[in-house]
Write a structure and sequence with these properties.
alpha/beta, about 35% helix, about 200 residues, single chain, 6-stranded mixed beta sheet, 6 strands
Length: about 200
């Protein structure tokens, strides 16, 4: 059996500004994000992790580093948002109003301008996750909210277009155990962030 902790990275500087990151616009953790990462480290002290996998971007690696040595896993990369990367939501809504609305309603049909088809992101993510579920051990997977939402839709047998109902907070932890079938033990848990609630409220996006 595998125990898999899915973890969204801590708050990044771009998160505080409402800017799309993706793969090329890759900012470091914000001051609050660094506190969140340390809180995550404390949470995992009792756990014996057999491996820590991380998307090879700055914000995910900085978060994963608090859990120990980690393995960079390209399949966990945030989707390539192409020309949207480095732009604010308002800029994107203005320049691509129809595509932005499609992203909010039918993400499975979106191909980002100069970037990746989100269906391709889902395919690579699910292929990698399925391979991990065939292993035995306890694993931490530090990645991005969209990647976690893809995995959860897959496990819950939901259409990918339902992903927005599964919001992930920074450093939120979701535990999956691969019984037959895989089972979600808890979802989007942020109990380790106790004491940071006021900061979280101020930085919510």
């Amino acid at each position: 059996m595998a125990r898999i902790f899915l973890i969204r990275h801590a708050e990044s500087l771009a998160n505080t500004r409402g800017i799309f990151q993706g793969q090329t616009f890759d900012t470091a953790l914000s001051p609050l994000g660094k506190k969140q990462a340390q809180a995550l480290k404390s949470r995992f002290v009792p756990e014996k992790l057999d491996a820590v996998y991380a998307s090879p971007l700055k914000r995910t690696r900085q978060t994963a580093r608090t859990l120990g040595k980690h393995i960079n896993e390209p399949a966990l990369l945030e989707t390539d948002h192409g020309e949207w990367e480095g732009k604010s939501k308002i800029q994107i809504q203005t320049a691509w109003p129809d595509l932005y609305q499609k992203w909010l309603t039918f993400p499975s049909l979106v191909t980002f301008p100069g970037g990746e088809a989100f269906a391709d992101t889902a395919s690579r993510t699910i292929d990698w996750f399925n391979s991990l579920t065939n292993q035995s051990g306890t694993f931490a997977v530090v990645t991005h909210s969209n990647i976690i939402q893809i995995i959860l839709c897959h496990l819950l047998k939901l259409k990918l277009d339902k992903m927005w109902h599964l919001a992930m907070q920074p450093t939120a932890v979701t535990l999956i155990e691969t019984h037959s079938p895989a089972k979600i033990i808890y979802l989007n848990d942020t109990s380790h962030l106790k004491g940071l609630e006021s900061d979280l409220a101020k930085h919510a996006i």
